[in-house]
Structure formats: structure tokens, C-alpha cells
Backbone:
């Protein structure tokens, strides 16, 4: 028994890597990794064709191919969130920021740095944004020109009521900007029933590509009116779009290998059945995870009705033998990587349901957690 604890069974992906049950970067398929094993020049016609195909497909995912355009941006997801806010909100504008976690607060920080006028409507991390109060604030303040919201707040895993937010915003004739970083490609988002001026996401979340690129899907008429709004060179979506319209090329060195990976990832996304197919797998992952963890005695932060099938927050056990760092290290030894919590209201940790993982990997994680709790001598997993 002692030898088994010193040398636990180690699970690995087909490429020999640990399984990443995190909010991103994520476990990717072997074929997505293999797609990156090629070099392209940024002016190569085949590479430009790949870019164009990716952008067309991304707009189709939200049924925006007739009204919206896709503008890619180098960097992590936050790069394109910042690009969206500073390009589409003019210096004379004012944005109402819906905040219920760290990523809503990050938008506050961005607007503060770039001196965009804003007001905040904040709820706690375990509650969705308040759409009734949204309507009241929009009615009371005609100076508000934009509303910005996070679709799935990765801090907790909570799903915000995006269709209702869009409906209320449209009724008051304001512009809606959506951070869909952790939801794009798995939770339905359709311009026909969820009107928005822009939505941003990245290559490495639910699309299961590699990190290094974000994109903004923006109403084309709105984008045309945004010239001169941005106060940075690199994060100017209008200038990026105009350059790519002229010759299909990025203004600055593109993340070529990330783009190749995303092209392959989108092919696999379509093979799986698009939003419906991928959403089905992630929901199954989430249901297996939550059921198994509750059987072990853990408590989720959120009730099932508010939980998105993206990442789940579990409250830290009160058992004095439970120490997160040791828990993390023991799971890492067994081939599974999870994530620390990000809540301000209570101690917690998070486990992702996304990436190229399936029911077998989730059940393997649960077995590893059961073994780890035994090693740590944790007898009560309740908070």
C-alpha cells in the first residue's frame, strides 16, 4: 500500500501529457497538435485562404455571416476583450458593465485605464446578473450607450442570462458587447434571437485550438463607424479589419501555428456536430463530474440551474487534513491538472469540463481524487 502511494498510477493523454481539467489552456487532440508542425509565410496564398475560411466559419457559428464580420487579434482572450471595448466604445460613450466575477471586473479595469466612462451593475459571484435592474438603469440614464457582459463567468462557472440581457439592451436601443471567451462554440449564441454588436472569444477554449489568438465577431455597420475610437495601435479592430479587407494579411506578424491549429480544430468541431454536439459532450462531462464529486461529499458553489457545463467551482472541505496545494500535487502525480479557486466569497477550487476530454477521463479523475483523499486522510469533504 505504501509503495502504491509513492508511485500512483499515472494517466496520460495519447501524446503523453497530463489531462488538463482547467478553464484553459486545454487538452487538445493529437491532430490539432500535428497541424502546427508546418511553417507558412504570412503572405502565402494558402495561409490567407486558411484565415479567410476560419473567419467565415466563426461568423457562421453565431448565425452572423450576413451581418457580422470576424476580426482576429494576436494574443490571449483579454487582448481581444480590450480591443472590443476601446474600439467600439467612443471616447464620448458610456458603458454599463455587468459584473459578477473577475472577468467583469477586468472590463472595469480596461475601461478605467483607457478613460472610457462607465457605470457598474454588480451582483455577487454566485448570482447571475440582474436583468430587471439592467432595464431600470438603462431607462434612468440616457447617457449609457453600451452594455458589456460576460456570458459564462469563469470565476465561478455561472451562466449569465444572455438572451434576456440582449432583449433588454435592444429594447432600450443600446449596443451590447459580449465576452463569450468560455462559452463560444458550446453554448448557443445566435444573432437572430440574441442581438449584439460584438462578441469576443479565443482559439483555445471550447473550440479546442491552441492559445495565441482571439477574435471579435462584430456587426459590420458598427465596425465601419468605429474609425478613430481606439487609443492604441495594436488593439484597433477597425484598422485590423481594413488591412485584412485590403489584402487578407494581418497588420503584424500573425500567430501562424495557432491559426493552423484552429483551422484543424474547427474541422473537428464540425465533425462532432458543432455547438449541439460539443455542448452534449461537455454537459455529459459536467454531469458525471458533479455527480461523482457530490458522492464523495464535495459541495458545488452553484445550484445546477445556474451551472454552465464549462467549469465547476467546488467549496474547499473544512477537514483540517485537506490542503489544496497537496491535493493539487497528488492529482498532478496521477496525471490530472485542476485549477485553484478565484472566489472572493469563500475558499474553493475549480475543475473544467472542456477540452478534448471525455467521460473516461472524468471518471479517471474521480478515481484519482478518491485515491488522493485516502492518501491525505481526508474523511469529510463538506465545507
Residues:
Amino acid at each position: 500500500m505504501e509503495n502504491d502511494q509513492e508511485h500512483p498510477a499515472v494517466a496520460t493523454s495519447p501524446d503523453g501529457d497530463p489531462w488538463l481539467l482547467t478553464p484553459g489552456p486545454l487538452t487538445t487532440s493529437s491532430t490539432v497538435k500535428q497541424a502546427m508542425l508546418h511553417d507558412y509565410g504570412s503572405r502565402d496564398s494558402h495561409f490567407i485562404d486558411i484565415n479567410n475560411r476560419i473567419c467565415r466559419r466563426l461568423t457562421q457559428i453565431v448565425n452572423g455571416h450576413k451581418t457580422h464580420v470576424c476580426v482576429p487579434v494576436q494574443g490571449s482572450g483579454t487582448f481581444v476583450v480590450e480591443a472590443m471595448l476601446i474600439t467600439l466604445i467612443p471616447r464620448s460613450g458610456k458603458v454599463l458593465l455587468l459584473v459578477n466575477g473577475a472577468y467583469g471586473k477586468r472590463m472595469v479595469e480596461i475601461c478605467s485605464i483607457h478613460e472610457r466612462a462607465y457605470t457598474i451593475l454588480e451582483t455577487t459571484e454566485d448570482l447571475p446578473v440582474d436583468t430587471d435592474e439592467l432595464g431600470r438603469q438603462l431607462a434612468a440614464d440616457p447617457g449609457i450607450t453600451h452594455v458589456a457582459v460576460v456570458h459564462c463567468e469563469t470565476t465561478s462557472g455561472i451562466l449569465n442570462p444572455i438572451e434576456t440581457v440582449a432583449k433588454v439592451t435592444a429594447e432600450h436601443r443600446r449596443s451590447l458587447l459580449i465576452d463569450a471567451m468560455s462559452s463560444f462554440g458550446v453554448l448557443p449564441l445566435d444573432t437572430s434571437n440574441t442581438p449584439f454588436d460584438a462578441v469576443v472569444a479565443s482559439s483555445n477554449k471550447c473550440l479546442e485550438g491552441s492559445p495565441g489568438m482571439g477574435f471579435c465577431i462584430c456587426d459590420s455597420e458598427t465596425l465601419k463607424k468605429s474609425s478613430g475610437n481606439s487609443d492604441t495601435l495594436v488593439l484597433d479592430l477597425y484598422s485590423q479589419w481594413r488591412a485584412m479587407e485590403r489584402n487578407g494579411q494581418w497588420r503584424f506578424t500573425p500567430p501562424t501555428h495557432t491559426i493552423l491549429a484552429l483551422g484543424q480544430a474547427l474541422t473537428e468541431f464540425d465533425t462532432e456536430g458543432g455547438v449541439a454536439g460539443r455542448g452534449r459532450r461537455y454537459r455529459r462531462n459536467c454531469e458525471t463530474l458533479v455527480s461523482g464529486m457530490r458522492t464523495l461529499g464535495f459541495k458545488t458553489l452553484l445550484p445546477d440551474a445556474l451551472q454552465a457545463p464549462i467549469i465547476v467551482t467546488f467549496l474547499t472541505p473544512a477537514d483540517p487534513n485537506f490542503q489544496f496545494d497537496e491535493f493539487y500535487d497528488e492529482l498532478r502525480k496521477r496525471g490530472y491538472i485542476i485549477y485553484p479557486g478565484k472566489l472572493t466569497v469563500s475558499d474553493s477550487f475549480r475543475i473544467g469540463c472542456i477540452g478534448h476530454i471525455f467521460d473516461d477521463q472524468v471518471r479517471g479523475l474521480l478515481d484519482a481524487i478518491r485515491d488522493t483523499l485516502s492518501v491525505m486522510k481526508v474523511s469529510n469533504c463538506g465545507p
Observations:
- The domain at 2-23+274-376 is CATH 3.90.1150.10 (Aspartate Aminotransferase, domain 1).
- The CA atoms of residues 213 and 228 lie 23 Å apart.
- Residues 274-296 form the longest helix (23 residues).
